[in-house]
Design a protein that fits this description.
mainly beta, five-stranded antiparallel sheet
Length: about 70
């Protein structure tokens, strides 16, 4: 997908922290509210972190959004 805000429940978001085109982290969309997807992932046992806060925390990362 061309925009992380298009993620729906069950869709996958992957991140490349270093810009080397290698996907470093994968998350699943488990909730959506007011057009904002929320992601759940295991590496730090995170439940429903908003895409908005994730992008603010890692503004230089590359994001890959996939419909499942």
């Amino acid at each position: 997908m061309d925009n992380v805000y298009k993620l729906g429940i069950g869709d996958i978001l992957q991140m490349d922290f270093s810009g080397n085109r290698s996907k470093d982290h994968s998350m699943i969309t488990t909730y959506k509210s007011n057009g904002v997807p929320y992601l759940t992932y295991h590496s730090t046992n995170t439940y429903r972190k908003s895409v908005k806060s994730l992008v603010a925390q890692y503004p230089r990362a590359t994001y890959y959004a996939f419909r499942t």
